[in-house]
Specification:
Rossmann fold, 262 residues, globular, four-stranded antiparallel β-sheet, six-stranded mixed β-sheet, 10 strands
Length: 262
């Protein structure tokens, strides 16, 4: 993909809160269609980095580009309209609306529909057809009329993914998408993420190394606000600096946990 305009680019991005510097000169280039996992110890700045990319925080210095255009001074909704969507660690659904209605809410703006007292949603065939497509993609078409509050945890996370992709964004940010799931749920969910992000650029923060190595084309390792490695999973696994700073202890902990559960 040489010569292509990066989907997401960070140029010496820094973020301070008062005198405390959280992101310390992070640089990253993510090409269109790549699946990138961002990993690192607690307190490394992963969530802060996501908030910077999606516009919730403005960087103290540095540049953030989306498809070659600077977005670090834009508001979250403006960045979203330029093709970036994100999910959150905590469920962010309309719990008293149905599965169908949650997806349709996310679809409406992307299709050019604006607020109107005189429009019946049932008459918006393009929005309803797109909603049905998304429901099939996330495997919730048979749960279309169920209130979001009555879904299982895994189904709610799937609905979150649906809401995130419904607007047709080309860059998707997923914040710990498999957190709290069982091993079998995680496996199914990784397959779902892989399916719904075909042709899109994916950035995800994830602690489960099985998910990371099974899903990501590349891994960015963030330690104390700096990207200390950005490479293929195999290269990152073999990186001595990454082993020392983070990965060795995490893999050992997860292996011990798996052995106890066996």
């Amino acid at each position: 993909m040489s010569g292509a305009t990066p989907a997401v680019e960070l140029r010496d991005v820094r973020k301070s809160f008062g005198k405390t510097e959280i992101i310390r000169g992070a640089s990253l280039v993510v090409q269109p269609g790549e699946r990138v996992a961002i990993i690192g110890p607690n307190g490394a700045g992963k969530s802060t980095l996501f908030n910077l990319i999606s516009g919730r925080f403005a960087p103290t210095s540095g540049e953030i580009l989306l498809h070659g255009e600077p977005v670090h001074r834009l508001k979250p909704f403006e960045i979203n309209r330029r093709g970036l969507a994100r999910s959150f660690q905590v469920s962010n659904l309309f719990t008293r609306l149905s599965v169908f209605e949650n997806i349709r809410c996310a679809v409406l703006w992307s299709l050019g529909h604006r607020y109107s007292f005189w429009t019946f949603l049932a008459d918006l065939r393009d929005a309803n057809d797109r909603t049905e497509e998304v429901l099939e993609m996330i495997k919730l078409d048979r749960r279309r009329d169920v209130l979001a509050m009555n879904l299982t945890y895994a189904e709610q996370r799937a609905l979150e993914i649906g809401v995130t992709i419904a607007g047709g964004a080309s860059v998707i940010l997923l914040d710990e998408p498999t957190a709290g799931m069982s091993k079998s749920e995680t496996s199914r969910f990784v397959n779902l993420i892989r399916e719904v992000t075909v042709g899109k650029t994916l950035l995800t923060v994830e602690h489960d190394m099985g998910v990371v190595f099974g899903l990501a084309d590349k891994i960015a390792v963030l330690v104390y606000g700096e990207v200390i490695a950005f490479d293929t999973p195999g290269a990152v696994r073999a990186n001595a600096r990454v082993q020392e700073a983070y990965l060795g202890s995490v893999l050992a902990e997860q292996a011990a946990s798996a052995a106890q559960g066996a």
